[in-house]
Design a protein that fits this description.
The chain contains 13 helices and 21 strands. By secondary structure, it is an alpha+beta fold. The relative contact order is 0.14.
């Protein structure tokens, strides 16, 4: 390594993905100098976000990326098509107010965001630069080291934003613990979009041996993502094509063709991750570095953009008090994140679970959505990140369970139905627990924000200066 150079900026953002780009734009907009450092993961090879809900499109426009969004070669998406295998029925869940989402290939979506943000006044982009250590972090500022073109650099900043993805090396460097569960393996293939039953919808193929997602990503091309048990390979699907039997026949043939032709299909793991906290000292986590879940709700990128906006709002409001701003950011995002992660987990269980309880829950979901237009639109609002209150999610879950219980009530012809009731009722536990703990947490945050502590400012290009605590002054 060459000689170390020392930089001094207001904000260092690590990671130039959706979260890093959106946060760089949001903070530069506040007049802060931003150094955006990205290691340069190859997005052309990644299996990652491609479907953006209307809320995500709106958030991106709100952050000044309207020109990028307009220039994307994106496909319109009008909502979800949930295709049940047994009974064979499809429920269409449109976005509210006739809104439209967008979908496009991951690299085509993300790289223009990075190019656009690099042109913003106040933003300096360093590509192929990897953060290797956080040398210092306390309430007065941070100092970190990164390697770029064979030279080791040191940078000091008032604020460090870790936007380095779900494996987040920076989160580990900061010593922040996380709740982590590896759920399954995702296999991604491209197929002819004409084989999708509803080519302008995101598809969920529910209740077969393998949960499957599909949506268009460019004219004539759709992405199919098959959820495989942990540790599986694409070879397993080639050897056991019967696992695809519940997919529509045209789609099944296309998946088989793609499996035969694509020697290196994209694969990745599906993880649940929730950081124990999202800020420490002068460092804060955004996007997947802070939390991520199974991608079946397609909410990851929308959540990244909401994080950027929440951090911007918090800093705008408490610019003179960085710890308070970071606490405000944490408490603004956490309830919505808990709902998002709990929703994805409950929905995944309901869609992919193979026991009698989950089969009954799927029947309940189908019955609820077919018979309650209000229920269908409330569920879609949750899926599309338009609604994030835990109590609404819990209410909707209980409605689905109620419909499922009606469907399995014992009769002379079906006395075994009750066997499903026990796992079904047991499944209600986690959403109820989450609802209670989120409410407790909100109350705790409210209290904590009112306790006095030292105040450190985030002044443009200025060093930190301790002041008296607000509450004790
Ligand atoms: C299979 C799958 C499908 C998905 N589908 C959808 C979907 O349809 N819709 C949706 O909204 N979301 C979806 N998601 C989620 C979405 O992809 C993520 O939420 C989103 O990409 C997170 O963005 P990010 O910026 O937080 O992290 P990332 O996109 O992971 O970016 C992290 C960046 O950090 C950089 N980096 C890492 N380490 C360092 C370091 N040490 N120094 C410097 N830079 C570093 C990397 O180079 C990278 O550019 C999906 C996820 C998966 C796994």
């Amino acid at each position: 390594m060459g000689v170390a150079c020392v930089h001094d900026v207001d904000v260092v953002i690590v990671g130039g993905g959706p979260a890093g780009c959106a946060t760089a734009a949001a903070l530069a907009d506040l007049g802060l100098s931003v150094l955006l450092v990205d290691a340069g993961v190859d997005r052309h090879k990644q299996l990652s976000g491609e479907l953006l809900h209307p809320a995500g499109v709106r958030a991106l426009r709100g952050l000044g990326f309207g020109d990028v969004v307009d220039a994307w070669p994106a496909q319109p998406v009008h909502g979800f098509a949930v295709v049940f295998s047994s009974p064979a029925r499809t429920v269409l869940l449109p976005y509210g107010h006739g809104d439209t989402g967008l979908s496009l290939e991951h690299a085509t979506l993300t790289l223009p965001l990075l190019e656009a943000v690099a042109r913003r006044p106040g933003v300096t982009l360093l590509t192929r630069a990897r953060v290797t250590a956080v040398e210092h972090n306390d309430a007065s500022g941070v100092r970190l080291r990164f390697a770029h073109e064979g030279v080791e650099h040191t940078v000091s900043a008032r604020l460090l934003v870790a936007a380095d993805g779900r494996a987040s090396p920076v989160r580990r460097m900061l010593g922040i613990a996380e709740h982590f569960t590896r759920i399954s393996t995702m296999l991604g293939l491209t197929v002819d979009s004409a084989c999708l039953p509803y080519p302008d919808h995101g598809h969920q193929f529910v209740g077969g041996p393998l949960h499957t997602l599909a949506y268009p990503i460019q004219a004539g091309v759709a992405r199919v993502m098959v959820d495989l048990p942990l540790g599986s390979t694409a070879g397993m699907l080639k050897e056991r094509p019967e696992l695809l039997r519940t997919l529509p026949s045209a789609l099944r043939s296309e998946v088989r063709r793609a499996l035969a032709e694509d020697r290196t299909p994209r694969m990745t793991s599906n993880d649940d991750r929730l950081s124990a906290r999202v800020h420490v000292g002068s460092a804060v986590l955004v996007g997947d570095a802070a939390s991520c879940c199974h991608p079946l709700t397609g909410s990851g990128m929308t959540s990244c953009f909401h994080d950027a906006r929440a951090l911007q709002d918090a800093l705008r409001l408490h610019r003179e008090d960085l710890p308070l701003a970071l606490e405000r950011y944490a408490s603004a995002r956490r309830p919505a994140q808990r709902t998002r992660v709990a929703l994805a987990s409950a929905l995944y269980e309901a869609c992919a679970g193979q026991d009698e309880g989950m089969r009954a829950l799927r029947q309940g979901m189908l019955h609820y959505w077919e018979h309650s237009p209000r229920g269908a639109s409330a569920s879609m609002a949750l899926l599309a990140s338009e609604e994030s209150r835990m109590r609404v999610m819990t209410r909707e879950y209980l409605c689905v369970v109620g419909h499922a219980l009606v469907g399995i009530r014992p009769s002379r012809r079906q006395p075994v139905g009750l066997r499903a009731a026990v796992p079904l009722l047991r499944s209600v536990g986690p959403p109820l627990r989450d609802a209670v703990s989120t409410t407790m947490e909100q109350m705790g945050n409210w209290w904590h924000c009112r306790v006095g502590r030292p105040v450190y400012t985030l002044a443009c290009s200025g060093r930190a200066s301790p002041k008296r605590a607000l509450a004790s002054s």
